[in-house]
Amino acid sequence: MQTTVLLGDPxxxxxxxxxxxxxxxxxxxxxxxxxxxxxIDNYQFQYIDNHKTLLQQLMLSCPEFVFNLCDEGFNxxxxxxxxxxxxxxLLNIPYTGSGPACLAQCYNKSLVNAxxxxxxxxxxxxxxxxxxxxxxxxxxLFPVLVKPNxxxxxxxxxxxxxxxxxxxxxxxxxxxxxxxxxxxxxIQEYLAGAEYSVGIIGNKGSLEILPILKVNYSHLPEGLxxxxxxxxxxxxxxxxxxxxxxxxxxxxxxxxxxxxxxSIKLFEFLDCRDxxxxxxxxxxxxxxxxxxxxxNPGWCWDGKFNLMAKWADLNYKNLLEKILDTAQKRYQLR
Length: 334
Description:
Strand content: 15-25%
Structural class: alpha+beta
Number of helices: 11
Shape: globular
């Protein structure tokens, strides 16, 4: 099948990436993606990464099917990620991944946490602070993690965002980094326990659970907070970049089942499609709580999702093909 792959636009600035633009690691990621896709039978791929002419190209070419890997969002604006599937739906073009409503909901962390609580899934204690509000209700328990309520790619979540007491919190809020200055914030219970990710491929009624991932922070230099912060994803010179590793989680059947059941509940309730990742972490008492829901999670060769797929004996090509086939089955195209 002729398939159009939609990607972020390397010609434009990208506020999430290092120095606000595509860099060597990003171009290497796209190269490895194209190499993997080239090995998939039954699909012929073409690529669109020019957002200035995106609408015209889609209308002229009328793709049979779209592999939506534009997790940067339209014009590389994360808050416009939902606009890509919305556009595809307006043009009646079938595509991989979750729809605009799901992406909009999951971009709002406090909204997702409220929905999770309604499903009896534990979430961190948190205080919502609107950008325009000068007065802050301080938490009674520390440490806390300060993060943007709306966001992606850990933008605004740095090692300085873990706050130990009210004096530190007051100083941090009074001297917010520019990226957070006009943003609604969550002052959230810092979860210090083990951190896990659950990957799901499929759709309601036919879900495949990938082996559960555990984050290993043990090699971080002493004194650095154990978080997957902005530095861990975008700054190769940071110790967060190469001192954090991932391993297949060794969990009891009961604990694994609890994580999987929570993930399936969220997948179905939020109307995730084809593939998604769910991140959890334990508090100091060992209670597992939801960190984040990631519909259309990172698809890169060195990301969490591909690593979990490897543990399920799926190489990178196999994973990409499985996502494509899953979406095609949803549309009853095969």
